[in-house]
Amino acid sequence: MPFALGSLSIVFACFCFGSNSLVVKTVSSRASPWAISFVRFAVGLVCSAIGAAVLARRSGGRVRDGFVVHDARDLVLRSIFGCAQMLLFFLGIALTSSGRTTLLGCTHPIFAALFGLMLFGEKLPKAVFLGVVAGFAGAAVVFWDGSSYSLFGNLVSLAGAACNGMAFHFVKRLRRRHSTFLIYLWPCVLGLAITAFAFPELLRLRP
Prior knowledge:
9 helices, mainly alpha, globular, 77% helix
């Protein structure tokens, strides 16, 4: 039962992720990527803050216990790379398409593996290197598929995947002493600060 529930959760998460990309592309005709990102960060901040508070209370602690930071350096780095990934993802959708950006964004495991090898001292099985080659070959097909999308838009989407791959390593380290909600909260805080300049644009939008 836990396996089945976990599998269904993954499928549902993929459905939500794909739907989110389509909505972002639709809205991008009326709002800038920065305004869309601001809303995304705001919603993420509220949801993760509530989650952290509820989890702390259920664990028998105080609400503020859910926001205690134990590894500030790793949390800051996770926030920087996580925030960059979200911003680049929305910008990539605006510059290309939802499907294209999602495909290129799915190369993040390749970058996670390479960063793990080069920066975190991880040892990779030989089969992983074959996967890396195959993954980059797939990205190359998307890059040069004959479409009219700009190379810059493709590179932005790929850069978002690279940031996501790097963020994964800090998420892994932070999970030892922090809740998932707190780990997700801080990139949203940073993102709100960076995209705050776009808030007036939201006020000018009409239904």
